[in-house]
Amino acid sequence: MTCRHTVRGKLVALGFPARVGRAGVAPGVNQSVRLVFAVVLSASLRVLFWAVFIQAILSWLPGVANASAWIDRFERAVQDLIDPLLGPIRSVLPTGGMIDFSPLVLLILIRVAIWLVGRVLLP
User: Fold this and answer.
1) 72: domain range?
2) How far, CA to CA in Å, does 5 sit from each of 9, 15, 53?
3) For the chain, how many structural domains are there in total?
4) Residue 21 lies in a domain
5) Cα separation of 28 and 12, whole Å?
6) How many C-beta atoms lie closer than 10 Å to residue 103's C-beta?
7) Exposure of 85 in the CB half-sphere (CA atoms within 13 A)
8) Is residue 12 assigned to a domain?
9) 57/44 Cα distance (integer angstroms)
10) Has residue 82 been placed in a domain?
11) In angstroms, rounded to a whole number, what is the distance separating the alpha carbons of residues 114 and 72?
């Protein structure tokens, strides 16, 4: 059996160091897991950011959602995803007349979370 067929050989083939650290794990594995987690979390937050943004725009155009069935279904799906996040913000934020500022606050919080992911999880 050659080195390529062992776990150590596969790690070396992926670019990890040949020496094995404590507990039988190559030293670079922890950094790779952290990188993958950071990328997935950042991408999820970016999708959420755009979902909030699109939902805010569609709320200003009520006739657009009624024009097409797929836009209406899309708007309802986005609203079902975002309303649980907007609820606590709406309960704390004072009303601004006819304008709802809670999506703006949520967008700012998501951008801060994306920035924190980049600063904390990425080297």
Assistant:
1) 31-120
2) 6, 15, 48
3) 1
4) no
5) 10
6) 19
7) 19
8) no
9) 20
10) yes
11) 29
pLDDT band at 20 (very low <50, low <70, confident <90, very high): very low
- Give 113's pLDDT tier (boundaries 50, 70, 90): very high
Q: How far is it, in rounded angstroms, from Cα 103 to Cα 82?
A: 9
Question: What does the DSSP assignment read for the chain?
Answer: --GGGSHHHHHHHTT--SS--GGG--TTHHHHHHHHHHHHHHHHHHHHHHHHHHHHHHHH-HHHHHH-HHHHHHHHHHHHHHHHHHHHHHHHSPPBTTB--HHHHHHHHHHHHHHHHHHHT--
Question: Are the beta carbons of 107 and 49 closer than 8 angstroms?
Answer: yes
Q: What is the pLDDT of residues 64-108, one digit of tens each?
A: 766 777 777 888 888 899 999 999 998 998 877 888 889 999 999
Report yes or no on 3 lying in a domain: no
